[in-house]
Write a structure and sequence with these properties.
596 residues, mainly alpha, Na/Glc_symporter_sf, membrane, transmembrane
Length: 596
């Protein structure tokens, strides 16, 4: 497909604006705090939109399309379940992260734990996340760009990653987090608008012939349910039970970390105060789960009619490498029907989605490598200017690694499942470490190592030993069980965090709860606590708000779907449920933000 002049004007206009924002904000990046955390002065609405834009990456609609084509709308519970994690972060952990005063979430390890194990954990996890996980996510996003570039622009994989990588590195290395956040604001509206345009055009395709025909088409009718069929227990367990009962709290996944972390935590650190931090994450979860999914789902359903089999992609796009012609190609394939002018907007929206995600991951990854590796262990006296310069160099290095890996991946769902398995069983420790004094650095090291080894075993060894292949949810359950038992046993038999370090953590963060009662009594007897007054524990109130928020957002998500399906009365009923949940949150919110 060839873009017309108007399409190119729209695309290059957006790139020019992004670069101008990068140049303008580069003047403010005089120290590491400004470059990696925007000086901790950003408002909630800007940070919230930035989080949404970051997770609105080029691979996300591809992932949703892959899921819907194979497992129907109900298959999205694989990521919808992470709303529970997100709402827990909003009402329990966002305020705590802001109070911690750290620049990165891995710096937290030396605030919470003591000894050489804490130092090792901080440095190793900075490399583990900043390189391994971060590069894998960026590679997945770049893979989506490869498919879109091949289908819409006729570019080879190498050409796509080179062009996309060069543009993004220039933009990302200039503005730091402030530039990323400001550009994200523009990119959010472009990306959302592009998704809506794609859905409207898909519905008007001659083979689809409108919404009514889509919903009654034989290829689609069995894909519409929000929940798996009770007649198929295996699908019910895989698509709903496991995500809702196990996956959301037990696995670590970038953007949906139990207890918060990664670039979500980075945005919390950039907020003006705890109130802005909480509101930013709340808006992110609302927009991410309630607003964005349906345009992608509609395009995915339409693609089942237009491209019913994988062979359809190869026939329609013979120039595209057959190795990437998988179900997630359905989304970019449907974009080829968008007319000139509108096509420019949609392509620009995808470029915006790509840039918002990659720029965030580049800044986030380099913040780990600079703050938690270079400054902490290599050059503690490094000047602010040198830290910013190194951050820009590492931005380029991370981009190169991600582009190389993108050339060997096949689909977005493959990457999603690999990362879930690697993080299986580690999530619980990130939830409990704030509220149980006995958790220590060795607990986390064991959890990280065991979960990785289990993932390696299932990925490369299990079938080689002659065992039958397990389903992804079975691997997840086994991984969670082995990892959780390993780190819990380690917690009881490994050295305790020193009283001095625990007192320092309590004096700064004061998370409260029964898990600290024993140690608080001991620390008070030693006179190590500055404020030994008994504070009302906020977590029970936070849990109430979490439940209300989760029900409210799920109700709004399904209410929107029911309006699309034409079930108006049921849609209105769920909308009312969402409103009631909002009232509950407003009632309890003052208690959440009350000063300690």
């Amino acid at each position: 497909m060839i873009l017309n002049t108007i399409d190119w004007v729209i695309l290059f206009g957006f790139l020019a604006i992004s670069l101008l924002i990068g140049f303008w904000t580069s003047r403010k990046n005089k120290n590491a705090s400004e470059f990696f955390a925007a000086g901790g002065k950003m408002p909630w609405w800007l940070l919230g939109v930035s989080m949404v834009a970051t997770t609105f990456s080029t691979d996300t609609p591809n992932l949703v399309t892959d899921i819907v084509r194979q497992n129907g709308v109900s298959g999205n519970w694989a990521w919808w379940a992470f709303l529970l994690t997100g709402m827990l972060t909003v009402f329990v952990y966002a305020g705590l992260w802001k109070k911690s005063g750290v620049l990165t979430d891995v710096e937290f390890y030396e605030l919470r734990y003591s000894g050489k194990a804490a130092k090792f954990l901080r440095g190793f996890r900075a490399i583990y996340l900043g390189l391994l996980f971060n590069v894998m996510i960026m590679a997945s996003v770049s893979l989506a760009a490869i498919k879109i570039g091949g289908v819409l622009l006729g570019l080879s994989p190498v050409e796509t990653v080179l062009i996309a990588g060069i543009i993004t590195v220039i933009y990302s290395s200039l503005g730091g987090l402030r530039g990323v956040v400001l550009t994200d604001f523009l990119q959010f509206f472009l990306s959302l608008g592009g998704a809506i345009i794609a859905a409207v055009v898909a519905l008007n395709h001659p083979k689809v012939n409108g919404l009514e025909n889509l919903l009654t088409h034989e290829n689609v009718v069995d894909k519409l349910s929000f929940f798996p069929s009770f007649s198929n227990p295996e699908m019910w367990v895989m698509l709903l039970i496991i995500p809702l009962l196990v996956q959301w709290w037990s696995t670590w996944y970038p953007g949906a970390e139990p207890g918060g972390g990664g670039y979500i935590a980075q945005r919390m650190f950039a907020a003006k105060n705890a109130d802005h931090s909480i509101k930013a994450v709340l808006f992110f979860n609302f927009a991410h789960y309630a607003i964005r999914p349906w345009p992608w789902i509609i395009v995915a359903l339409c693609s089942i009619i237009v491209f019913p089999e994988l062979d359809s992609f190869s026939k329609a796009f013979p120039a595209v490498n057959s190795g990437v012609a998988t179900h997630d190609m359905g989304y970019p394939a449907m974009l080829t029907f968008i007319p000139a002018g509108l096509l420019g907007l949609v392509v620009t929206s995808l470029v915006a989605a790509y840039m918002s995600t990659i720029s965030t991951h580049l800044n986030w990854g380099s913040s780990y490598l600079v703050n938690d590796v270079y400054k902490r262990f290599i050059n503690p006296d490094a000047s602010e200017k040198k830290q910013v310069s190194l951050g820009r160099i590492l931005t380029l290095v991370l981009m190169i690694f991600s582009m190389l890996i993108a050339l060997v991946l096949e689909n977005a769902l493959q990457t999603f499942e690999i990362l879930l398995q690697i993080g299986a069983g580690t999530g619980l420790i990130y939830i409990l470490r704030w509220f149980w004094w006995r958790v220590n650095a060795i607990s986390e090291i064991v959890a990280m190592i065991v979960s990785f080894l289990v993932a390696v075993y299932f990925s490369f060894i299990h079938t080689e030993l002659g065992f039958s292949e397990l389903l992804s949810w079975q691997k997840l359950i086994i991984g969670v069980g082995i990892t959780s038992i390993s780190w819990i046993l380690t917690t009881y038999f490994s050295p305790k965090t020193t009283d001095k370090q625990l007192a320092n953590f309590l004096n700064k963060v004061n998370p409260g709860g029964p898990g600290w009662k024993k140690i608080i009594d001991r620390l008070n007897s030693k006179g190590l606590l500055k404020n030994n007054e008994n504070k009302k524990w906020k977590v029970p109130t936070g849990i109430v708000c979490m439940i209300a928020g989760s029900i409210g957002i799920y109700s709004l998500l399904f209410s929107t779907g029911l309006f699309i399906y034409g079930e108006i009365l049921n849609a209105i009923a769920l909308l009312l449920v969402s409103i009631v949940c909002t009232v509950v949150i407003f009632k309890f919110y003052p208690k959440i933000i009350a000063a300690d």
